[in-house]
Request: fold
Amino acid sequence: MVFLLFPSFSNLLTAIAFRNQMQNLKLLIGNINFFHTYPLVKLPIDVQLPLFLIKEELKTRKLFRLLQEVGTTESDFEPHLDSLIFRVIGLDDDDYRISDKYFDIMEKRSKKLEADKDSIAKQAFKAYHEILAIKKKMTKDK
Reply:
C-alpha cells in the first residue's frame, strides 16, 4: 500500500521528513491562537501558520508605509515574508503573475488596517482567502 502512494523510496523519505518538519514547527510555535479575541475558534495548523504570517506581513507593511510617510527611506531591516507565505500556501513565488496579484492584495489589505486586533485579523483572513483564490485559479489554468 505504501508503494502505491509513494512510487519511490526517496519520495517516501521526503514525505516523512516533511511531516516531521511540520510536527516540529507545530511544537515550536505551539498554538498560535490567531484569533486572540475568539479563543473558541480552533483552526488547523496548516491554516493558522499562513494566517499568522500574513498578519505579520500586513502589520510590517503598514508600519514601513507609515515610516515612509514621515520621511524615512526604505530600510534593509524590513522583513519580507512573501516567499515564506508562498511556500506555506503552496504557490510558486517565481511566477510574476502570482507575485503581482499577491502584492496588490497585501497592499490593499495593509492600507485598510486599523490599530486593533479585530481589524488585523479581519484583513489577514480576507487576504488569505484572496490568495487561496489565486492558487485555485492558477491550478485550474494549468
